[in-house]
Specification:
Layout lengths: L3 E4 L9 H14 L6 H8 L5 H11 L7 H16 L6 H7 L4 E5 L3 H10 L3 H4 L3 E3 L11 H10 L6 E5 L2 H9 L3 E5 L6 H4 L4 E4 L5 H4 L1
Parallel strand pairs: 1-2, 1-4, 2-3, 4-5, 5-6
Helix pairs in contact: 1-4
């Protein structure tokens, strides 16, 4: 029996991933890394921002140039302020869900709050928002989801994770949790499919899936 719904943020609550991926491609190009949007989706969607800097360091043989990450953050914030919206159907779905809910995301806490406030979703989750910066290992390791369950006082096998990325559903399975894989965004349904996972493509169907 489900006692807790754990939501990823990007691509599940806020429609940030098309914006983030566009900016990532631009920032990689600045340091001579030519990557397509699909390559960024495959390698980085669902993972913490540190993995981007690590990829640049591996490519260059040294850390990114001074100010590179800060420039990317400023560019991303401006784009979010201009464009960010909730994922289609999520506001209606949240209004119908009566189970306890929390957020567990790879984003840093300040960026999480910024995105949720911009989209009017912050108050729904205030005090129940967890970041990968609080654990040793980010997705696809189970640490973040297990941390969220502990903080909410719920056993892992009583949790359902709503995710939209390969690494997110892998983390949910590793945590011993059921997953609902949202394929209405950038990640294909076949990438999300697997054990203990139901794939769906319309957020308005989420309440009945729970």
């Amino acid at each position: 029996m489900t006692e807790l719904v754990i939501f990823d943020c990007d691509g599940v609550l806020v429609d940030s991933e098309p914006i983030s991926i566009r900016i990532d491609v631009e920032m990689f190009a600045e340091v001579g890394m030519t990557m397509t949007e699909q390559e960024v989706i495959d390698r980085f969607v669902g993972r913490s921002p540190e993995t981007l800097a690590e990829a640049v360091e591996e490519h260059l043989g040294h850390p990114p140039p001074d100010g590179w990450e800060e420039r990317g953050e400023r560019r991303l914030r401006r784009a979010f302020e201009a464009e960010l919206q909730p994922v289609p159907g999520i506001v209606e779905a949240l209004a119908q869900i009566t189970l306890p809910m929390c957020v567990a995301s790879s984003s840093p806490p300040e960026r999480l709050r910024f995105k949720l406030e911009l989209t009017g979703l912050y108050d729904r989750f205030a005090g129940r928002i967890f970041s990968a910066s609080e654990v040793a290992n980010g997705k696809p390791a189970p640490d973040l989801f297990l941390h969220a369950a502990r903080q909410m006082g719920v056993e892992p096998d009583r949790c359902v994770v709503v995710e939209d990325s390969r690494y997110g559903v892998q983390a949910a399975r590793a945590a011993g949790m059921d997953a609902l894989g949202y394929a209405g965004g950038l990640t294909r349904a076949d990438v999300l499919a697997g054990p203990r996972t139901v794939v769906f493509d319309d957020m308005r169907s989420l309440p009945e899936l729970l």
